[in-house]
Amino acid sequence: MTDSSRVRIVDSADVSPDATIGEGSSIWHLAQVREKARLGKNCIVGRGAYVGTGVVMGDGCKVQNYALVYEPARLAEGVFIGPAVVLTNDTYPRAITPDGTQKSADDWEPVGVTIERGASIGARATCVAPVTIGAWATVAAGAVVVKDVPAYALVAGVPARRLAWVGEAGVPLVPADDSGRYECPQTGHTYREHEGILTKETL
């Protein structure tokens, strides 16, 4: 499933032969990529990171050191997962059932986190499934996300709340006028807010 001549997998990494690793991707020391995971082209999985069974990652994703991406997470193109981030997959976690027996895979239904194109999750943040992180949103370091995050939102805190809007460059936007328009100070692109939703204006 993987052309080893076109990917970099270091000797200490544990990559299932049933995983698919896209061309140009790198799997670093002590990382684990489980069965049926599908990584796109030019992805990076850092030291000690975990990518669960059947996780799907688009092209150009970065999973930094010791992040835990539990199945069935879905990451779109260009998603950044910071160091020690956790994407959970169990709404009601328990080690045992009510009768005291150890829970098995048949005793629960995994639910995943969905992260849309270009979004970034800061170091040690936790996203509690089944939340969706919108495109180009930024989750601040240490945040705990328990509800969906709209596109272009900057959220922080426990639980995470929106503090500002960010553009596709990741830089906080500044008001352009009093009508709900914002501008990126880095790129000059403009955005418009309407009823809590931000959209990029076309030139």
The ordered H/E elements are EEEEEEEEEEEEEEEEEEEEEEEEEE
Helix fraction by DSSP (H/I, runs of at least 4): under 10%
CATH topology: UDP N-Acetylglucosamine Acyltransferase, domain 1
CATH class, anyone?
Answer: Mainly Beta
Number of DSSP-assigned strands: 26
Total domain count: 1
Main beta sheet strand tally, sense and closure: 9 strands, mixed
First-last Cα distance: 42 Å
Structure description:
The chain has 203 residues and is mainly β. The protein has one domain (4-166): UDP N-Acetylglucosamine Acyltransferase, domain 1 (3 Solenoid). The chain contains no helices and 26 strands. It has strands at 8-9, 14-15, 20-21, 26-27, 32-33, 38-39, 44-45, 50-51, 56-57, 62-63, 68-69, 74-75, 80-81, 86-87, 114-115, 120-121, 126-127, 132-133, 138-139, 144-145, 153-156, 161-165, 174-175, 181-183, 190-194, 197-200. The chain has a nine-stranded mixed sheet with strand order 1-4-7-10-13-16-19-21-22, with no helix packed on it. The protein is globular, with a radius of gyration of 18 Å. The model has no long low-confidence stretch (mean pLDDT 95).
Describe the secondary structure blueprint for this structure.
Layout: E1 8-9, E2 14-15, E3 20-21, E4 26-27, E5 32-33, E6 38-39, E7 44-45, E8 50-51, E9 56-57, E10 62-63, E11 68-69, E12 74-75, E13 80-81, E14 86-87, E15 114-115, E16 120-121, E17 126-127, E18 132-133, E19 138-139, E20 144-145, E21 153-156, E22 161-165, E23 174-175, E24 181-183, E25 190-194, E26 197-200
Parallel strand pairs: 1-4, 2-5, 3-6, 4-7, 5-8, 6-9, 7-10, 8-11, 9-12, 10-13, 11-14, 12-15, 13-16, 14-17, 15-18, 16-19, 17-20, 19-21
Antiparallel strand pairs: 21-22, 23-24, 24-25, 25-26
